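In the current project phase, work has continued on tokenised descriptions of protein folds. One protein thus recorded appears below exactly as we store it.

——
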Amino acid sequence: LKVDLSKSLKEGSRGSTEGIRSHRARALLVSSEFALALVLLAGAGLLIRSFVALNQIDLGFDPHNVLTMRIALLGPHYQERVRQVEFFGDLLRNVQPLPGVKSAAVIDGCDLPPDGGCGMSFVIEGRPTPPPNLLPDASSRVISADYFRTMGIALVSGRYFTDADTNRTRRVVIINEALARDYWPGRDPIGGRLDFSSSLGVKQPIWFTIVGVVENVKNHGLEVAPRDEVYVPYTQYPTWFTPREFVVRASGDPALLAPAVRHAVAAIDKDQPISDVQTMDQIMSQAEAGHRFPMILLGVFAALALILAAIGIYGVVSYGVSQRAHEIGIRMALGAQKEDVLRLVVGQGIRLGVTGIGLGIVAALGLTRLMASLLYGVKPSDPFTFLMVCLTLLGVAGLACYIPSRRAAKIDPMIALRDE
């Protein structure tokens, strides 16, 4: 058998080149699939990192094992403030001894963290009083004495409220670290006094003495920096007390306490409705939903794009191996090793992947800027995310080329020469 191997190899190479050219559109499609996969994976990766960052935020309180509900106190009987105070005083005394209850508290109608908060302007004693439109203000919450213990808010200095803080004692207020830092930088604010008369619609000053400083709490959204806040005992609040949130810290599953708390409310006034019964964990989950849903949606599309890209590159490389079987056999007959064939085939697929990755990076750097509003704690061009996505795509390209390359390495050169 006389075969001109050099001539056959050249012909095989021409055939291979012609085959690659004839299927250039298929290769372009595979590269486009990789580019699309990179864009979607980069977006999903950024959202995942953002979601992880959100879950690592210091909330300033402990949301676990806390049950919440809203009690509106409807009816003419509760038009007077003293009646409201009596109702919630009775409720707190009835709920506290219940099995599984560690503490209970009441808070005004301003939403629970991490959303909402009512505002109050104030004047600081001993400092110049600015014009009404320039008064400093803070987010306010009217609470019962055990609110901080129930929500797991740590005391920084001073003391918490106690049951001794009533309408017959001096009015007291607790501020957060942000307010203390803004108006008493480097100093102890304990003992300072705040006048809230401008917010309460009263002409005469209503002074509240600062008795404590607590940690900052994410009361206005997970992504919003803590604002200045003041906490006032509901027993000393001088005006109308809006519909309230009732919170209970449980020693176990807080949802199991809901029937007992409902019964405690009915024992005082069976006509008072209870609404929005849920745990703080559920509230936090709802707060994170705005980040969770797009993350899952984009992740699903990214996974599909990655699968399509892997199938595409596998198909192109497999087809290329079948078209170049004669050339590969002759190369092996001329001394090429299996490792050389593996590098040849895998290299073809990796080149397609790298081309797609290059196109995808350019597109992703532009498109991920559009999702900046959905991100927290990570930049749209985060290099770590892009690096991990590129390595993932290269790994997928390598795996997709593995089976065709193994098949190519098993080609028997004698079959190729016999066919020649």
